[in-house]
Prior knowledge:
Blueprint: E1 2-11, E2 18-28, E3 33-37, H1 44-51, E4 59-64, E5 67-68, H2 74-81, E6 84-88, H3 99-110, H4 114-127, H5 143-154, E7 161-165, H6 173-190, E8 193-198, H7 201-207, E9 210-215, E10 218-224, H8 225-228, H9 235-240, E11 253-261, H10 269-275, E12 280-291, E13 294-304, H11 308-318, E14 321-327
Parallel strand pairs: 3-8, 3-9, 6-7, 7-8
Antiparallel strand pairs: 1-2, 1-4, 4-5, 9-10, 11-13, 11-14, 12-13
Amino acid sequence: xxxxxxxxxxxxxxxxxxxxxxxxxxxxxxxxxxxxxxxxxxxxxxxxxxxxxxxxxxxxxxxxxxxxxxxxxxxxxxxxxxxxxxxxxxxxxxxxxxxxxxxxxxxxxxxxxxxxxxxxxxxxxxxxxxxxxxxxxxxxxxxxxxxxxxxxxxxxxxxxxxxxxxxxxxxxxxxxxxxxxxxxxxxxxxxxxxxxxxxxxxxxxxxxxxxxxxxxxxxxxxxxxxxxxxxxxxxxxxxxxxxxxxxxxxxxxxxxxxxxxxxxxxxxxxxxxxxxxxxxxxxxxxxxxxxxxxxxxxxxxxxxxxxxxxxxxxxxxxxxxxxxxxxxxx
Length: 330
């Protein structure tokens, strides 16, 4: 649905030039939720605004539903944007309009007839669970309700892709979960493709199929969330599970990081290492999280015994990713 190739965005010229995006490439398959994760200043907002050409890329290509966005004239770009919805951190609702009138606004711009407009607004408010708020004004709504209005408005023109610019970062954790549940429901029910940017790991963990990690304008890692989360050296896993560092192993001990996902998380790994291989296992840290519909986990441990290699081979065959940190042999 969205293909970005070698995207570059530079603000200013000469010595004053600031490179916001540097050779960014990614693909968002139709019907998936794709997250771009990064800290403030990483270039996330610039990237998502380049998708609908609110920012003009310096170079590179942006293809949405088969259309090269950067080559469109003004009229063609306006038509293309009708198929790209966008929601924002600060909602940007019109305070002088009711909820229904806010949702109807893009339909007015497109040119819907009044009867069609009213029917579509009713359908959209039902979709986001705000039927009873149609005649209410934004000032009377909670933050979560305002974002639901923003989502309904973004869906008014039946877009093929929804862009989310930090849409939950101004909300409390419980409201954030409800908005993410709504986005996931829309993705599943109507096949909506969603490209979202966020600095919150919980957003990626809860709803994203794939993720790209952006640092200083460059993508440093991307892939399926559940696959990256099962790799000990991935940045995503280290962000999920901060590791215990600078540990000195005892003589004859080996420090390992074990990463696992799916049904492997249900296996009695530690007890098997102890019983079958006679190893002493000193657990340094351990975590298991739900990522989408799958459990992922990480365990750091110090192993002592004569059958460490055999034990690690067993773990490898089980599907556990093993990273060795330190070995000290007598």
